[in-house]
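ugh ok fine here u go
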Amino acid sequence: MALEIIGAGFGRTGTYSLKAALEHLGFGPCHHMSEVVSDPRQIKAWCAVTEGRPDFDAIFSGFRSAVDFPVSAYWQDVLTATPNARVILSHREAEDWYGSFSQTILPLILDKEAWPQNAAPWFEMIEKVIIGKALGGRTDRDGILKAYRANEAAARELEAQGKVLVFNVRDGWEPLCRFLGVDLPDAPFPKTNARADFFSSVKSGTQEAAV
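structure:
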């Protein structure tokens, strides 16, 4: 495994924009939930992670970076396996993040009756990764916010060592490029995956998984 960048930020913190930015800067391919949703091998591999049988070499084979869920739920384990990687915590104010998460990812997981039968393995996996691991089994507002803040605090503990960048996508290229030691590109910073686009991308991915 040759991961150079590990994303510690939970989904809905600008992770899809960060993925696009990293790939534009030459740190791609970047692993993201969008790759997992339609790939049965990735789904099976992440299920094994939730069962205590991780094979990060296989999961991240061919990827130079990884952001979003599932990796952000296990970023500390992945960092232990690749200690030379750098960590980017995509940051969003907790209350603002919860407002987005509670209207996108959370209801998608909790409404099990709406899970398409053909995409059940993916939904079962993300429930274990996100609810079980990232949120410590909590689905209430206070518990979710506690888990979110604890995850950020764990990443910030490494910030003083220069190993972690706390990054808000609104800040654009400059802090990201400085942290990665690359030149500023002559292009707008990517802005993707608005709330309305989230459900469209999930629907497209689960449909593709059924083919």
